[in-house]
């Protein structure tokens, strides 16, 4: 017997042709490993970009407008990542990174707002100091 063309049924021990979907003897399914092999998950496509935008929105929050823009992009990319995982839960993973992206984007947005009065006060003081 050639082992390349026949496999042993794990349930009843009968040697069955490899092309069979199930055992002709006991009708047990013979390809249980196939779905398991496809369960290797990959990172959601936007996860890294979302996290980078979130971190940059914090870093650039003192420039206000770039902080707002990057925060908005980070939040959008994080949502796209969540949607990708929801649509293909067997393919994509990376919820932890998306959560981090969402939090950093939120912090970047808050810091950008906090910086507005600081920059305004600084500008007023600067103009006042120039005219003094
Ligand atoms: Zn069998």
How large, in whole angstroms, is the Cα Rg? 28 Å
User: How many structural domains?
Assistant: 2
Distance between the termini: 101 Å
Q: How does the major sheet shape up?
A: 2 strands, antiparallel
| Biggest sheet: strand arrangement | 1-2
**Percent in helix:** 55-70%
What ions, cofactors and ligands are bound?
A: zinc ion
The number of strands is: 4
Give start-end ranges of low-pLDDT stretches: none
Order of helices and strands: EEHEHHEH
What overall geometry do the principal axes of the alpha carbons give?
rod-shaped
SS content category: mainly alpha
Mean pLDDT reading: 91
Report the total helices: 4
**Fraction of residues in β-strands:** 5-15%
Which key phrases capture this entry?
132 residues; two-stranded antiparallel sheet; two-stranded parallel sheet; 59% helix; rod-shaped; binds zinc ion
List the helices and strands and how they pair.
Layout lengths: L5 E3 L6 E3 L15 H5 L4 E2 L3 H13 L5 H23 L4 E2 L1 H37 L1
Parallel strand pairs: 3-4
Antiparallel strand pairs: 1-2
Structure description:
The chain contains 4 helices and 4 strands; from the N terminus they run E-E-H-E-H-H-E-H. With 132 residues, it is mostly helical. The chain has 2 domains: 30 residues, no CATH class; 90 residues, no CATH class. It has a two-stranded antiparallel ribbon. Strand 1 and strand 2 form a beta hairpin. The longest helix has 37 residues. The N and C termini lie far apart (101 Å).
Short description:
By secondary structure, the protein is mainly alpha-helical. 59% of the residues lie in helices and 8% in strands. Residues 9, 11-12, 14, 23, 25-26, 28 line the site of zinc ion.
């Amino acid at each position: 017997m050639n082992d390349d063309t026949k496999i042993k049924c794990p349930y009843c021990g009968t040697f069955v042709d490899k092309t069979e979907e199930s055992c002709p003897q006991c009708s047990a399914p013979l390809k249980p490993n196939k779905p398991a092999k496809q369960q290797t998950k990959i990172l959601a496509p936007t996860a890294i970009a979302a996290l980078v935008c979130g971190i940059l929105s914090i870093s650039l929050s003192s420039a206000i407008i770039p902080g707002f823009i990057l925060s908005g992009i980070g939040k959008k990319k994080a949502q796209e990542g969540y949607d990708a995982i929801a649509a293909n839960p067997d393919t994509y993973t990376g919820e932890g990174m998306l959560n981090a992206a969402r939090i950093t984007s939120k912090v970047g947005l808050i810091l950008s707002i906090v910086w507005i009065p600081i920059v305004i006060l600084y500008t007023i003081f600067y103009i006042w100091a120039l005219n003094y």
